[in-house]
Amino acid sequence: MNNTRTSGLPPSLPPLVISSRDMSRLEALLDTPVLRRHPAALALMDELNRADVRAPEDMPGNVVTMHSRVECEDELTGEHHRLTLVYPHEANVETGLVSVLAPVGSALLGLSVGQTIDWQASGNRSLRLRVTAIDYQPEASGDLHR
């Protein structure tokens, strides 16, 4: 099984696992007039369309969901990162709050510990981020209605 995701992947990939609560909130966000035709929103919608949607209480604890705090390693440089996946209005790159509409944010959504993503950072710099741990996942922590 291939544990690496990249943008533009074929539809034969295994589906992403996301919670029904995250799905509802993300669909509402993407349906706003400002985002309806935005390239990042369209890319995220493509990801959501192939998702395996589960009730929040049925989410595996090793899957990145909205508001999850994750540890990642760049396999190309050895750099370690701590990121929290958030909605656009909560984003703050300086403090590690990454928007789900950022390329790395939409790629992280639904990844499991041990999986990697290939991603082009600013300046056309290639990264290969591997999720090494999930320090906090709302569903696993019982925060089912955050």
TrEMBL record:
Domain Regulator of nucleoside diphosphate kinase N-terminal: 14-53
A GO molecular-function descriptor: RNA polymerase binding
InterPro entries named among the record's database cross-references: GreA/GreB_C_sf, Rnk_N, Tscrpt_elong_fac_GreA/B_C, Tscrpt_elong_fac_GreA/B_fam
Signal peptide (from-to): none
Domain (Transcription elongation factor GreA/GreB C-terminal): residue spans on this chain: 60-136
Keywords (A to Z) from UniProt: Kinase, Transferase
Superkingdom of this protein's organism: Bacteria
GO annotation terms (biological process): DNA-templated transcription elongation; regulation of DNA-templated transcription elongation
PANTHER family for the chain: REGULATOR OF NUCLEOSIDE DIPHOSPHATE KINASE, TRANSCRIPTION ELONGATION FACTOR GREA
Protein name per Swiss-Prot or TrEMBL: Nucleoside diphosphate kinase regulator
Organism field: Pseudoxanthomonas mexicana
Gene: rnk
